[in-house]
Write a structure and sequence with these properties.
Low-confidence stretches: 157-162, 166-171
Number of strands: 9
Order of helices and strands: EEEEEEHEEHEH
Strand order of the largest sheet: 4-7-2-1-3-8-9
Strand content: 25-35%
Radius of gyration: 16 Å
Oligomer: single chain
Largest sheet: 7 strands, mixed
């Protein structure tokens, strides 16, 4: 096993689930999957619940400072037809600090990783997720598999917050 990628100070990698039911599993990924760097108080995960992961060195395929539409083609992620013509800045694994610094306040970034390089650390749930389809079943599955659940505070984006923030949180 290789070493693990260290996210920028205070950040950690998350992969969210769209929903969860009795047939869901923690390990049913495609060859490449999406995740993001979460920095509490600055970014919001794309999905309201999911897993906190570690990524082996060499596992990052591509990284973007915003959400991008992607599709799988022959097991590899590529930009989707509705985003392929937009100008997205991509980042290398050595540029994760720059990626996080250029992520919009209260937004999220997107990182494509080789699923074979991913290891589950724990689970997460955004605060106040009552009423979200699948969240109860997800929490039950986490308990069954022994994954502790970290509650992530939701960042409420306002014009004041966004203009006041110039990313001093990760200095």
């Amino acid at each position: 096993m290789r070493g693990f990628i260290t996210p920028p100070k205070g950040g950690y990698f998350v992969h969210g689930f769209r929903t969860w039911n009795a047939l869901s599993t923690f390990h049913s990924w495609e060859p490449e999957m999406s995740c993001s760097i979460q920095l509490d108080g600055f970014t919001n995960p794309f999905r309201p619940f999911g897993i906190i992961i570690s990524i082996e060195e060499g596992g990052i395929v591509n990284a973007f400072n915003r959400d991008v539409g992607s599709i799988l083609r022959d097991g590899k992620k590529v930009l989707g037809h509705h985003t392929v013509y937009k100008n997205y800045q991509s980042f290398t694994p050595k540029e994760l600090y720059s990626l996080l610094s250029s992520t919009h306040f209260a937004g999220h970034n997107e990182i494509w990783v080789d699923a074979n390089s991913v290891h589950i650390v724990s689970a997460y749930s955004i605060a106040n997720t009552t009423g979200i389809p699948g969240v109860k079943a997800f929490r039950k599955a986490c308990h069954t598999y022994g994954y502790p659940i970290q509650i992530i505070p939701s960042v409420q984006a306002t014009m004041e917050d966004a203009s006041a923030s110039s990313m001093p949180l990760i200095a």
